[in-house]
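Q: What would this chain look like folded?
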Amino acid sequence: MLGTSFIPQHSDARVLEQVIYKWSNTRRTLAPVLANSYRLLVEDGGAVSRNDIERDITRLFRSNAESWMNFNKS
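A: My prediction, written as structure tokens:
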């Protein structure tokens, strides 16, 4: 329901070290979820390109956080 408008993270991380430790778990969990979403989209007649997937991954794991932190690329 959120699409790619969120930052995937463990909400129970209390310190930076926990976020780093849990980051690989988040990626491992999210990968099959995304793969299944793209599969369902294709089965329903939608088109999914490599660029679509790269865009979504970039938003989830980079752009959304950069935007939230007001991080401006030079």
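The two ends are 33 Å apart (CA to CA).
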